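[Discussion] Sanity-checking designs against the backbone

I'm trying to build intuition for which residues belong where. Below is a structure token string of 498 positions. I'd appreciate it if someone posts a full sequence so I can compare it with mine line by line.
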């Protein structure tokens, strides 16, 4: 019996002989597959060969050593870790024809062909990590001769995303740096169990359609510790026609700067959004800090927004720190729902208004705001800057122009307490004096505000129509002028505590 049992020395010897062999076999260096640190050499074939070899062997880590590489697109497969070591600079190819064409779908569920620099399709157990930089060379896809502040127009053809993960599960994206995306930056489409942690996104503030992180029809997604600067929405949840719902999504400990929305749900809202939490985020600047747009018949419910601080100090007109809007994209769209939205512990510096509206015969339901502080360096006059943008309620021009810190129409069970407001002083702070302001969705219209007067209009605290049930405590706030009544509420049954 003793002859058949290995002693401890033999076991230790076997352990140390086997482990180095397994570790070495599980690591694949792209340089061993023909990759070159050369900005003129397309490394797609070499990188893909390393990934494919690891996949054939059951998985492993594909390492990209420090250096500058040009790349026209790779597919990461199951059980693969792609590690961009410190000092890596991946430069996206400008040859769009060299990119791999992927069959996919668009917002309306139509079949299309999509192209990406880095993609994960139908895979499980994938990690993309490291301190390397991925440069999408977005400026190459811009049309010239546009001087900021101005929305930059894009060329007709460009990649669909810098990094796309589709129909995949157990995916981690950690610590990488994504810059100058030509379109969306990081897109998570119809996935499950995704972690995005510690990544940096640094795009131009005027880059066309350069969303930061898009989460479409996915479940169990956790975004944390990210730093995002971009033109379009920083972190946005969407649901597509014939797609999946968004469920169990958390976003926490992120910093953002954008000319659109920092934290957003919609507008694409064909399916539902359930159990969403945004917390502990700082927004350096945004046109809207938190926004929800349900236009396509989905239901957005059970959503928490907590511990958010930020400013709407963006070079736009009609900025809104919070905007909730239930509408219909067109006459054929079915009405959706927005309900059970809890927002608390928020400090916003703004020149605009909180807006909450639903189309006729519908309601925003059970909306609760607590511990909200608004500070106004400047009050914009919404009558002078009103727009027909689809991001404002159709047929409610008077609501778009309403002069109040909080504007609400068609809301059932609205509760607001512990509200404080600081109105402008005698001068507009220098950091708020943007010389030219642009309009969201309009390439040509611009405004030059008169900053000699910090109050372009006087605001009430609240303007409301058809507010059914609920309670608003206004005991700690007053209008911007003693000549303006604190609230105007029409056709409503809400309780106002003065």
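Best answer:
Here's mine. Compare freely.
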């Amino acid at each position: 019996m003793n002859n058949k049992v290995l002693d401890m020395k033999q076991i230790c010897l076997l352990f140390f002989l086997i482990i180095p062999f397994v570790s070495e076999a599980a690591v694949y260096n792209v340089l061993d597959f023909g990759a070159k640190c050369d900005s003129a050499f397309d490394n797609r074939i070499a990188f893909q060969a390393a990934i494919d070899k690891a996949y054939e062997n059951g998985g492993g880590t594909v390492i990209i050593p420090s250096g500058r590489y040009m790349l026209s697109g790779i597919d990461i497969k199951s059980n693969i870790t792609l590690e961009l070591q410190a000092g890596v600079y991946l430069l996206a190819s400008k040859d769009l024809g060299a990119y791999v064409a992927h069959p996919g779908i668009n917002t309306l569920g139509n079949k299309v062909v999509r192209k990406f620099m880095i993609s994960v399709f139908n895979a499980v157990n994938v990690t993309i990590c490291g301190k390397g930089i991925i440069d999408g060379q977005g400026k190459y896809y811009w049309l010239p001769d546009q001087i900021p502040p101005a929305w930059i127009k894009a060329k007709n053809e460009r990649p669909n995303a810098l990094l796309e993960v589709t129909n995949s599960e157990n995916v981690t994206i950690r610590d990488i740096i994504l810059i100058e995306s030509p379109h969306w930056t990081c897109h998570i489409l119809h996935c499950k169990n995704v972690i995005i942690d510690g990544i940096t996104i640094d795009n131009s503030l005027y880059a066309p359609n350069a969303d930061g992180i898009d989460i479409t029809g996915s479940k169990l997604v956790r975004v944390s510790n990210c730093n995002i600067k971009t033109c379009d929405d920083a972190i946005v949840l969407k649901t597509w026609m014939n797609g999946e719902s968004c469920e169990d999504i958390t976003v926490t400990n992120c910093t953002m700067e954008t000319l659109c929305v920092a934290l957003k749900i919609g507008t694409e809202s064909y399916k539902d959004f359930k159990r969403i939490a945004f917390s502990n985020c700082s927004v350096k600047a945004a046109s809207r800090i938190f926004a929800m747009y349900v236009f396509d018949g989905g239901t957005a419910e059970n959503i928490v927004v907590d511990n958010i601080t930020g400013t709407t100090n963006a070079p736009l007109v009609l900025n809104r720190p919070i905007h909730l809007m239930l509408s219909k994209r067109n006459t054929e769209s079915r009405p959706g729902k927005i309900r059970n939205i809890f927002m608390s512990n928020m400090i916003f510096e703004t020149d605009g208004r909180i807006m909450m509206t639903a189309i006729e015969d519908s309601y925003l339901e059970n909306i609760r705001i607590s511990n909200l502080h608004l500070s106004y360096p400047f009050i914009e006059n919404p009558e002078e800057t009103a727009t027909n943008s689809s991001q404002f309620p159709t047929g409610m021009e008077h609501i778009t122009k309403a002069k109040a810190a909080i504007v609400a129409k068609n809301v059932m069970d609205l509760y607001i307490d512990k509200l404080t407001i600081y109105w402008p002083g005698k001068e507009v702070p220098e950091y708020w004096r943007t010389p030219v302001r642009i309009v969201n969705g309009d390439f040509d219209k611009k405004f030059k505000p008169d900053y000699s007067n910090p109050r372009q209009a006087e605001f009430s605290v609240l303007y409301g129509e058809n507010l059914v049930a609920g309670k608003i405590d206004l005991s700690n706030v007053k209008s911007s002028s003693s000549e303006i009544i604190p609230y105007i509420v029409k056709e409503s049954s809400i309780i106002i505590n003065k």
